[in-house]
């Protein structure tokens, strides 16, 4: 019976094997293959030697698998004179991503809370501006941002970069939190108000603890976005803070010399590993989190 | 802060030995194997002066590295030295007072006497002051041919553009792409530059690009160049590679007859263990004219307050132009040195040809130096359209060229 | 603005004050970054700034040049085409997939992860990998020709007329999974009673989806629409990595035009003019919508 309670999502399949379920699974399997082909090509290519890549087609499995490209990408590929591969940027990426994700989510959740529960006049206008901001190409913002950071005296360091990520992550995150908090039962909020709990009290004691599902979503979005960011990382910091994507760019975008496609692919997979891992681990929570935002309590 | 204190302390200690160990960050976009090896020569020579080279390499010249460099300089956190295209592109940074004049060093060391050809140092000069160190000369005016492709087609390897055109049908018959041009805009404008310099001649080239003389565009010499351009488009039909080195790879493995490309293509042949004269042939000025162009790279030095870094900047500038570093760097880079008084004993055939022409002095300015970045990019956009849209006529190119020259004058 | 309205009632002022303090980062971001920077950009679009921003006014010259530029006009056409394709296909496919996954199937987690993983990769990676797969000499075309169908031609990246579809294929691969997950989450929020009721009434499933479920999913659709559209307008990395704007200039997009003008042409004024046009277009679309969506709607 427990099964039954979980069940009635869509119209229920009557039996396990029916033309209908064959169609469903068939479609899904075909789609899954289409989605997996690029990953397959990446992995296969990263395991081939260069001569084999030049001769063979991109879909054929490696004749002689080699892990050399992976080792090279991680610890030997050169960025100018520094030949220590991607590992150089890995910790920088962590150092950038962790504070940026935490601070941007904290601020966006407070925004969303203020917007959803304490609507003060004018708030929605600022929010609308924020939403329009989500559509501005980042490149345009580079110069004024450089000027702002310079005037604030935080250009070139981690603080400045964290600020940039917080600012540009704000529109979408605020939208998510605002929508989520609007769907929480209002009684919760009202009861706390009656008890005399203040703005921050309600936020920390009631709202924040109950927003775990949407926080998961926000973390996933932000980790992906910030980890994959190249432009801000390189424009707003010094080389000592350059994230992993800078090394990836240097490996992949070098225009002269032999293109080591296998190393490129290995480097690409290695760089994408952290966000990929987060997706694999928290895929279920991700759906649940978004679903929670849409469920009326 | 502690770092600076530490640096100060180190400097104080080293003072007894007469040398300051100053760290200086150098940004550049040389990240490929050969390029990085060349930069390493500079770093080694610089470190030998008792300073320390901190490498800031960012791949991708215009689109990626340039915004980084400009942001760093205008953001008030400049690097010690940076690669930049010389010519007109850095002028504004200089005018804004963000870059440092090297006039003292240049005067003291007599750069105006040692740099050859003189035009290359001229590109560093703004209002009579020298602001950059030219480090090499790259000529864009080469036609690279695959000997294997011509052997397969059963025709002798062409000795100039006319033979190249005549041999093309045979190559087509043998299933070989006669001329390969990458799809990137700058490669298309390189072809235009080559046909004008080689077929219309250096004099007309100068009139068109340096003097921006509109009448010269309509001259009979230019008509010939435009005709050659039309031929080039025909010969390139069917080539669909993106990047220049993919195109070079086709010449290396004989699937294409030839490519018009700068002398940096040589690095690709070298890495593939191909020998000039035996596996491939290089023709300067399309084999029709003995000319080289003086594109090249240069380093600029942002203004900084720290006297230790100012001193290190001078050291670096001196190192870069020194005969030893020039030889070591350019051999690895595959380019020509900026001074005529050094000997590249180990240079290969193609480079020798280039050096000889350079010594004789038939030198034209590269498009980078002759045009503003804006006009240069517009030209490249137009040319890549021309090569990709069969319905675009040569008259459109003429008209577009006139517009761009007027825009830039 | 908020202050004046609340000034009549001290207790409300106090209450709002806390919320206002909390919203300071948002207000600062909205005013300084999005409004302030935009104003800065618009102001400089009337100048002839080249490498460095300078207040050297030239009137509307930058705009005249912009609208006379083939590259810009092609960029706009491409963006419209790309945008329509992306919106239609990512929503249709995303919704269909979400419905399939919502049929209480086995291995749902596996399928979902497979469909979603491309979203974790950067656009640069997506561009490079699809450039390979669509390369006529060693990708799909050569494989199918190798299987015996000699005349098969599929080379979007080398054909200026269809190159944008090549970009769309890659963008869909990366983005559809995310749309699917958002919509799936929405479907999970639909009350079981709805399904029971529609079954009792004997309404066919497809009709229930179209007439009952889709309207109920409106908030999810709106959130998804905002995220997807913001991505479409900003599309840049993917094009650069996959086609470089080529062949020729047939796959140029506005964001790339802006960037190229700023950093390749070193003509900031022109780049700012182009981005002002983008901003204006976005504002014209968003402001009425935002007004309807957020303005005056009461909670609950």
Automatic annotation (TrEMBL), chain B:
GO CC terms: periplasmic space
InterPro entries found in the cross-reference section: Bact_solute-bd_prot1, SBP
One Pfam short name: SBP_bac_1
Keywords of the record: Signal, Transport
Major localisation: periplasm
Localization of this protein: Periplasm
Residues of the signal peptide: 1-21
Coiled coil: none
TM segment ranges: none
Family affiliation: Belongs to the bacterial solute-binding protein 1 family.
Job of this protein: Part of a binding-protein-dependent transport system for a sugar.
Name by which UniProt lists this protein: Probable sugar-binding periplasmic protein
Automatic annotation (TrEMBL), chain C:
Membrane-spanning parts: 21-43, 79-101, 113-133, 162-187, 208-233, 272-292
Gene Ontology CC, one term: plasma membrane
Cell compartments where the protein resides: Cell membrane
GO biological process, one term: transmembrane transport
Organism superkingdom: Bacteria
This protein's record includes keyword Membrane: yes
InterPro entries registered for this protein in UniProt: ABC_transporter_permease, MetI-like, MetI-like_sf
Keyword terms, alphabetized: Cell membrane, Membrane, Transmembrane, Transmembrane helix, Transport
Pfam families in alphabetical order: BPD_transp_1
Ranges of residues in domain ABC transmembrane type-1: 76-291
Membrane topology value: Multi-pass membrane protein
Principal location class: membrane
Keyword Transmembrane helix part of the UniProt annotation: yes
Family note: Belongs to the binding-protein-dependent transport system permease family.
Protein name in the entry: ABC transporter permease subunit
Organism (species): Paracoccus litorisediminis
């Amino acid at each position: 019976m427990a099964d039954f309670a979980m069940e009635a999502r869509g119209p229920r399949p009557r039996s396990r094997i029916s033309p209908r379920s064959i169609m469903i699974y068939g479609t899904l399997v075909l789609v899954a293959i289409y989605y997996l082909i690029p990953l397959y090509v990446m992995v296969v290519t990263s395991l081939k030697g260069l001569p084999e890549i030049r001769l063979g087609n991109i879909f054929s499995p490696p004749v002689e698998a080699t892990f050399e490209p992976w080792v090279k990408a991680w610890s030997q590929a050169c960025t100018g004179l520094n030949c220590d591969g991607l590992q150089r940027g890995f910790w920088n990426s962590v150092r950038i991503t962790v504070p940026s994700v935490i601070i941007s989510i904290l601020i966006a959740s407070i925004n969303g809370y203020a917007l959803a529960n304490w609507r003060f006049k004018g708030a929605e206008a600022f929010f609308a501006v924020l939403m329009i901001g989500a559509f501005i190409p980042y490149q345009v913002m580079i110069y004024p941002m450089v000027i702002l950071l310079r005037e604030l005296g935080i250009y070139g360091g981690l603080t400045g970069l964290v600020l940039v990520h917080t600012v540009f992550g704000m529109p979408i995150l605020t939208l998510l939190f605002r929508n989520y908090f609007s769907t929480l039962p209002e009684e919760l909020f009202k009861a706390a108000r009656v008890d005399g709990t203040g703005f921050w009290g309600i936020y920390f004691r009631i709202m924040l603890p109950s927003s775990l599902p949407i926080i998961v979503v926000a973390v996933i979005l932000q980790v992906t976005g910030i980890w994959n960011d190249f432009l801000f990382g390189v424009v707003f910091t010094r080389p000592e803070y350059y994230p992993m994507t800078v090394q990836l760019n240097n490996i992949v975008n070098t225009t002269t010399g032999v293109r080591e496609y296998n190393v490129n692919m290995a480097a690409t997979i290695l760089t994408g590993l952290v966000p990929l891992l987060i997706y694999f681990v928290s895929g279920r929570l991700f759906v649940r989190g978004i679903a929670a935002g849409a469920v009326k309590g | 802060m502690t770092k600076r204190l530490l640096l100060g302390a180190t400097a104080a200690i080293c003072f007894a030995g007469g040398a300051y160990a100053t760290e200086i960050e150098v940004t550049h976009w040389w990240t490929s194997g050969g390029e990085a090896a060349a930069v390493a020569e500079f770093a080694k020579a610089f470190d030998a002066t008792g300073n320390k080279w901190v490498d800031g390499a960012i791949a991708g010249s215009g689109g990626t590295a340039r915004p980084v460099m400009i942001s760093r300089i205008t953001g008030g956190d400049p690097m010690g030295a940076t690669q930049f295209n010389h010519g007109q592109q850095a002028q504004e940074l200089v005018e804004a007072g963000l870059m440092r004049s090297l006039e003292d060093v240049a005067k003291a060391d007599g750069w105006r006497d040692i740099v050859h050809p003189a035009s290359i140092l001229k590109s560093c000069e703004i209002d009579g002051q020298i602001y950059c160190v030219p480090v090499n000369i790259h000529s864009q005016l080469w036609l690279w041919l695959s000997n294997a492709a011509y052997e397969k087609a059963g025709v002798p390897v062409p000795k100039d553009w006319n033979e190249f055109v005549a041999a093309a049908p045979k190559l087509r018959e043998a299933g070989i792409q006669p001329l390969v041009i990458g799809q990137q805009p700058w490669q298309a404008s390189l072809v235009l530059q080559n046909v004008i310099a080689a077929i219309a001649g250096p004099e007309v080239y100068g009139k068109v690009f340096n003097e921006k003389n509109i009448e010269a565009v309509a001259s009979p010499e230019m008509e010939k160049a435009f005709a050659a351009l039309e031929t080039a488009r025909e010969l390139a039909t069917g080539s669909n590679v993106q990047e220049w080195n993919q195109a070079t790879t086709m010449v290396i493995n004989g699937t294409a007859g030839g490519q018009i490309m700068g002398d940096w293509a040589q690095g690709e042949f070298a890495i593939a263990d191909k020998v000039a004269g035996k596996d491939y042939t290089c023709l300067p000025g399309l084999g029709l004219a003995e000319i080289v162009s003086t594109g090249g790279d240069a380093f600029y030095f942002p203004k900084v307050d720290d006297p230790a870094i100012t001193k290190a900047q001078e050291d670096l500038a001196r190192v870069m132009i020194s005969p030893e570093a020039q030889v070591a760097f350019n051999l690895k880079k595959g380019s020509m040195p900026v001074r005529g008084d050094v000997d590249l004993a180990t240079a290969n055939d193609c480079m020798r040809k280039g050096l000889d022409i350079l010594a004789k002095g038939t030198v034209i300015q590269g498009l980078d130096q002759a045009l503003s970045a804006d006009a240069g990019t517009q030209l490249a956009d137009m040319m890549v359209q021309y090569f990709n849209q069969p319905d675009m006529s040569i008259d459109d190119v003429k008209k577009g060229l006139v517009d761009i020259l007027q825009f830039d004058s | 603005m908020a202050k004046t309205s609340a000034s009549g009632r001290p207790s409300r002022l106090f209450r709002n004050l806390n919320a206002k303090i909390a919203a300071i980062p948002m207000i600062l971001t909205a005013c300084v970054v999005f409004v302030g920077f935009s104003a800065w950009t618009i102001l400089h679009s009337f100048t002839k700034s080249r490498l460095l921003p300078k207040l050297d006014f030239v009137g509307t010259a930058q705009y005249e040049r912009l609208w006379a530029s083939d590259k810009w006009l092609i960029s706009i056409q491409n963006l419209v085409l790309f945008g329509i394709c992306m919106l239609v296909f990512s929503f249709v496919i995303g919704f269909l997939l979400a419905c399939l996954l919502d049929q209480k199937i086995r291995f749902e987690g596996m399928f979902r992860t497979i469909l979603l993983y491309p979203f974790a990769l950067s656009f640069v990676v997506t561009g490079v990998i699809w450039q390979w797969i669509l390369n006529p000499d060693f990708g799909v075309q050569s494989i199918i020709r190798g299987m015996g169908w000699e005349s098969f031609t599929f080379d979007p990246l080398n054909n200026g007329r269809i190159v944008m579809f090549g970009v769309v294929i890659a963008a869909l691969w990366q983005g559809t999974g995310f749309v699917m997950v958002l919509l799936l989450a929405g479907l999970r929020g639909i009350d079981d009673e709805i399904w029971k009721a529609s079954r009792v009434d004997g309404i066919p499933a497809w009709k229930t989806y179209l007439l009952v479920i889709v309207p109920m999913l409106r908030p999810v659709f709106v959130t998804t629409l905002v995220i997807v559209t913001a991505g479409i307008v900003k599309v840049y990395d993917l094009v650069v990595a996959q086609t470089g704007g080529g062949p020729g200039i047939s796959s140029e997009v506005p964001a790339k035009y802006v960037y190229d003008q700023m950093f390749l042409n070193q003509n900031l004024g022109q780049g700012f003019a182009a981005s002002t046009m983008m901003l204006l277009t976005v504002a014209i679309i968003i402001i009425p919508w935002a007004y309807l969506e957020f303005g005056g709607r009461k909670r609950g």
